[in-house]
Amino acid sequence: MNHSSMFYYVVREDLIDPETSIQVGIRTFNDDFMGVKILDAELVHEHSIN
């Protein structure tokens, strides 16, 4: 398990609803985000208030 695999497990175990969840600031790419909306680190940085 690593710092991002927890999202895989919580979706798989029905602990969060991927239809109503957003993961913010991810710095890696994955082919399957299990239905979770992703706001990657680059997008967040480009649209930050600073």
Automatic annotation (TrEMBL):
Lineage top rank: taxon: Eukaryota
InterPro entries for the chain: Ureohydrolase, Ureohydrolase_dom_sf
Gene3D superfamilies membership: Ureohydrolase domain (3.40.800.10)
Pfam families xrefs: Arginase (PF00491)
Molecular function terms from GO: metal ion binding
Protein name: Uncharacterized protein
Species assigned in the record: Rotaria magnacalcarata
